[in-house]
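Trying the structure run again after the queue cleared.
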Amino acid sequence: MSHQPSFAALRVFEAAARHENFTQAAGELGMTQAAVSYQVRLLEQQLGIRLFVRERGRVRLTPAAADLARTMTGALGSISAAVRRLYEADEQALVVSCSSTMAVKWLAPRLGRFQALRPDIDLRLDISDALSDFRGVDAALRTTAIPAEGLYALRLMAIHAVPMCSPELASRFAIGSPADLLATPLISRDDVWWEDWFANAGITLGSAPHGGIRLASQVAEGTAAMAGHGVAILTPELWAAELNSGQLVIPIDLPLDTGMSLWFVCPHERRSAPKLRAFAAWLSREAG
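Done. Tokens:
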């Protein structure tokens, strides 16, 4: 034999051998009966042996073809099992990109509930403040006004901002009005949220003293605020535990609508994957 027979012909042969009927094999493979007959004749020519004895209403394997049929059935079964294992492994692993602040202050504390609900899903967090390109990542949580085009996006919650500080600092500076904050140390004073919050309160931030602590993340800002180092402008949805415990207080309850939201995003072609549907539905319930 000068070359290996085509896999297409071998696949048709296996189905015909298993059914002992060309018409039933054609139905399984989505082919016509004539196409099945053609592939079998082609394989017989390539192998130089007769594979079937035609009988009324059925075909019967020749003794020479029986071993090939058993081998093909086993081989195709192994291939199907390998593909199934690959699919199941992919469905079990869920990689989600998330910023450090959102991971630490919102997602991670809730993950136990998702694991209890779906112990079959192996959830892994890719914690990064950089935007994901979805290579090796299934989905992402992003805080933005409008998600990037080309992505499926589910809005989870609006992002608000409000001044927070330790109760001791609020008492020491006798903070009772927005104007009182001008005389207090503001953490990350150059944060645009401060400018917007003061503008919303009818105050120009330019009159506030310069200097103070500048930090790169809301986690660091909130930690500094709890330590009494100043007033930080934070997202209340992320600091509910600290507010409930009294580690942080809101001296001026005037929330700022930042115009941003928390979004669940993923490539459109993956949105129907069962693991992504399950995770998105759970996130939506958690966000309320």
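The chain has eleven helices and eight strands. Worth checking whether this holds up in the mutant runs.
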